[in-house]
Each structure stands twice: as structure tokens, then as C-alpha cells.
Amino acid sequence: MKFEAKAVDDFLELFHKNKEKIRGFEGCEHLELLRDQNDQTLFFTYSYWTSETHLDAYRHSSLFAEVWKATKKGFSNKAEAWSLDQLVESN
User: I want to staple 31 with a disulfide (CB 3.0 to 4.6 A). Which of 9, 11, 47, 65 is the partner?
Assistant: First the structure.
């Protein structure tokens, strides 16, 4: 997610306010927020979900709708998302 510089603090506040709610959503096994080392306006969320069904339930929830609506207000570019399969597990 690429943000306008003036929107970064608001996004960080929003994320920290809602991260435990997201982590507590049924099927969320892991959630982290990452920031690009060279571009302080570029962020990634990285999450593990029990199944695609659980992720879809979150994406259709009122929690997601509320957080996403507030998040996208600060975008400077269209957000991108990927669903991935793990090929090698970390230690």
C-alpha cells in the first residue's frame, strides 16, 4: 500500500487500533505490518489465514469494511494484494 506522506501517521494509528481485532478474527493465524526501508510511505501487511474461506469471511466483514474505507483514503496509488501458497517453511 502506497500512501500520501501526510496520511502515514493516520494509517499507522488506524492499524495499531485495529490489529488485535484483525488477529482475533476467526481464521487469522498471523498478522504483521511491514514498511519499505527506502520508501517510508510504502507498507505491506502479511497475514496467514486458516483457509481461503476464513480470509473471504474477513474480507466480507464489517471490520474489514470499516478499516479498508479509512485506509484507502490515504492511498497515493492503487493497492495490490496477493494470495500465496507456501512452498518452503521457515525454521
Answer: 47
